[in-house]
Design goal:
By secondary structure, the chain is mainly beta. It contains no helices and eleven strands. The strands form two sheets. Strands 2, 4, 5, 6, 9, 10 and 11 form a seven-stranded mixed beta sheet that branches. A four-stranded antiparallel beta sheet has the order 1-3-8-7, with no helix packed on it. Strand 4 and strand 5 form a beta hairpin. It is globular. The N and C termini lie far apart (40 Å). The relative contact order is 0.33.
Length: 118
Amino acid sequence: QVQLVESGGGLVRDGGSLRLSCVASGSISRINTMAWYRQGPGKQRELVATIFIDGGETVYADSVKGRFTVSRIAANAGISMYLQMNSLEPEDTAAYYCNADGYDGGFWGRGTQVTVSS
């Protein structure tokens, strides 16, 4: 089992920045990738960014390329994943969820709300 806890959401103005964090604990050695998803009001959940834990390779949704950066720090005690979000737009308003995927399947955090005001 893997436990995921997100933090860092909040209210920010159009053009502002936020940094989200996700801490993974439990069976972290069996995690292959971690990712950020988001779900805006009335929208389906969408993939924002993925990072491979071992090599650090990253993949981004077209809508956030050049504005968002995903990173991770892996240690014996846990894995921390970050999402640096710059040049935020009202369209980025959503609940952001941390996901971990590996040999034991997929796990989700409870989410953190990001609201961008115009």
